[in-house]
Amino acid sequence: MNVDSQYSEQLNKKHFDFLHCVYKAPDLNNISSINISLAYIAKSINLPETEILSISEYLSTQDFIKIDNSCPPWRDEIDRDVSITSKGIAEVEKQVTQNLSDSTERLLRSAPNLENVDIAVEKQKIKRYQVLYCIYKATEDDPNKYIRLGYITKDIGLSENQVISITNYLIYQGFLCNIFDLDSINYAVCITYKGIAEVEKIASTNKPKNQVDQALNVSPNHPFIDEGRLQELKEISSTQLKFNCLKLIKLCEELNSNYSNENYYATAMLTRAIMDHVPPIFEKTYFIEVANNYGRTNSKNEKKSFKKAMTHLDNVQRSIADDHLHKKISNSESLPNANQVDCIQELDILLQEIVIILKKPES
Length: 363
Fold this sequence. Notes:
This protein is mainly alpha-helical. The protein contains 17 helices and six strands. The chain has helices at residues 3-8, 13-28, 38-45, 49-61, 86-97, 119-138, 149-156, 160-172, 193-204, 209-216, 227-237, 246-260, 264-277, 287-293, 300-326, 338-341, 344-359; strands at 36-37, 65-67, 81-84, 147-148, 176-178, 188-191. Helix 2 packs across helix 3, helix 2 (13-28) crosses helix 4 (49-61) and helix 11 runs antiparallel to helix 12. The longest helix is centred in the last third of the chain and has 27 residues, at 300-326. The N and C termini lie far apart (73 Å). The model is unreliable at 1-9, 27-33, 99-121 and 206-219 (pLDDT under 50).
């Protein structure tokens, strides 16, 4: 069923926007009163006052709202208050929870199949889903809570203009609502029942895992540091007295985040930061001493394997990070890629050894 035809069964689009505004306004503004002024509604849904007055009369005759006629005669009609009736509430909740479909513009009907289509073609749809999913997760504890657009920008790494544009689109499609016109990153939005239903539908759809993962995160990169290894560090950190591992854990988390978002300059620099941070755990001052002199066991093979991995980290990854940190601007540049900064195995060996050392009881 088309959205417009659905509204026309009882309410046209403007009527529904009016009614939905009355329905949501108390929650969005954290007020207990159920009375909302017509002037507020006019500003919220951007309609002329004369049209707002006409719509309010119609909705009142249909018993969707009640108009407070106790307004003093010296006040304008637009300053009158209205409240939603139980019939109005039922009408709003019926319409926003229906499974609306549009054969051409239901961007969120399914996660895009990135194996069969060009990623560039689907990227905008993915960004739209990321914005909606971000708001969904931020309001799980309270769906009526509204979220400032700046939070979204920071959380998923899109520009302010991108977030504003995408949010406007999602509002137009009925997945989000707002109280004011969107022209600033400081405005706030709230997810609608339709938006919640859409996110949960996609999450529960039986799709190949790579498609769902791709919809939530454009990058195909797996975690740079294994989540299990990171969890080991977190568990040790809570009982470790000699070394505080909070910074190490944070560096690892930021390394994973930047690698998954294809930020390869940051990946190289964070790898080096971890290398420079951990030598005291090995009772050394510099990482080159860890590479050349550390040996936990008497096994020559184990010492040789560890030294080989740490020497690679010290020689290769340190050089790559130094180059990106100190190279001056020029008229020719080539950006790093995932292959260049990949030292996943060597770094895991380093963190594995740290876990082993920190698990030992202090003598």
